[in-house]
Amino acid sequence: MFHAVKLFSDLGFDLVVPFIFINGANMLEECVTLLHMYPVLFVHVTCPVEELRRREKERRDRKVGEAETQLPLLVPQDTYDITVDTYNFSVEACADKIIEVLSSSDKFGAFKAFWAQMRS
Questions:
Q1: Which residues contact 111 (CB under 8 A, 6 or more apart)?
Q2: What count of other Cβ atoms lies within 10 Å of the Cβ of residue 28?
Q3: pTM assigned to the model
Q4: Engineered SS bond to 83: which of 44, 50, 67, 119, CB 3.0-4.6 Å?
């Protein structure tokens, strides 16, 4: 998948790629290796556990509690360019916050930080 992201970026397309990195799968390392030189804005999307459960129940195609069991497995736990809270803020407000940061590519530092960690 990350090779496709790289290809589309090389073709000049801007992408939004929703993806969850789980510890032990080495997906984050693969993604960073391929895309560390690209302008990647790494967004952390958060909401309370109770809200995760409510959303799973509302969707009816999810096992209630599955997202909660995955929380400790998520990587990274703390290195993002921006965090948006989809419980306390509307989708539009979260999108506006992301759009505001997009205008400052100098703030896209998470992948570069991961790359430096991987190389040291």
A1: 31, 32, 35, 36, 38, 40, 42
A2: 20
A3: 0.87
A4: 44
Q: Which residues contact 45 (CB under 8 A, 6 or more apart)?
A: 83, 84, 86, 94
Alpha carbon distance 21, 80 (integer Å): 12
Number of domains in the chain: 1
Residue corresponding to tokens 């090779």: 3
Dihedral, CA of residue 87, residue 90, residue 91 and residue 97, to nearest 10:
-100
pLDDT (tens digit, 9 = 90+) per residue, 61-79?
A: 888 999 999 999 999 988 9
Does some domain include residue 6?
Answer: no
11 lies in some domain: no
- Rounded to 10 deg, the angle between the 2-10 and 27-35 helix axes is 20
Residue 59 belongs to domain spanning: 43-111
**Does 14 map to a domain?**
no
| Position 49 confidence tier, pLDDT thresholds 50, 70, 90 | very high
